[in-house]
């Protein structure tokens, strides 16, 4: 049995170097209102109803199991991975996912719903026996190159600054630059990462839905499903 303690604020993953108008099916991209606004991707047509329902059922299960999927049973992890792969399959047959998801311009804060990463990327800070201590994970986009993955537990914040570059329509190369530890907003330690530690984000799906489970009443959200190869599911509330 694992006890997961979560608190507000945390960050996590990707965005393209090349900025060009995205071809997100059912989605158009608007301009930023100011330097602090989140992405203003707005839905013009939602994906087909059948695929919308498939994505909502996937998200419901991801929320039930997440965010730290690594503490779940192998069978539960395999179940959600299969559902994600099913999304990827329907993406190729018209599910409403962007055909070039790695090129979608992104801004603002994206919250982690689920991850099978065994370490801090899922919010896990440390574990004592069967008790897992974790924070809330977010991914914050600073500009067209830089983003911050962060985990916050109460006054403690762990941040990982990284840079990204589009490799093709579905893959983004990520290079991790430095880690920072903060307490009560004060930086305690910043350490550059050596040897150009890197990874690849591979999209399985990206689309906008009306989130019926949103506590504020069905707001539109951009959903991204990726592998690193660990499975990650993130959501971003769109500006109206």
Question: What is the topology?
Answer:
Blueprint: E1 4-5, E2 27-29, E3 41-43, H1 49-65, H2 74-91, E4 108-115, E5 124-128, E6 131-134, E7 136-141, E8 146-153, E9 156-166, E10 171-183, E11 186-192, E12 198-210, E13 220-227, E14 231-237
Parallel strand pairs: 1-6
Antiparallel strand pairs: 2-3, 4-7, 4-14, 5-6, 7-8, 8-9, 9-10, 10-11, 10-12, 12-13, 13-14
Helix pairs in contact: 1-2
Could you characterize the architecture of this molecule?
This protein has 240 residues and is mostly beta strands. Helix content is 15%, strand content 41%. It is built from 2 helices and 14 strands. It has helices spanning 49-65, 74-91, and strands at 4-5, 27-29, 41-43, 108-115, 124-128, 131-134, 136-141, 146-153, 156-166, 171-183, 186-192, 198-210, 220-227, 231-237. The strands form 3 sheets. The chain has an 8-stranded antiparallel beta barrel. It has a 3-stranded mixed beta sheet with strand order 1-6-5, with no helix packed on it. Strands 2-3 form a two-stranded antiparallel sheet. A hairpin with a 4-residue loop joins strand 9 (156-166) and strand 10. The termini are far apart. The model is unreliable at 1-45 (pLDDT under 50).
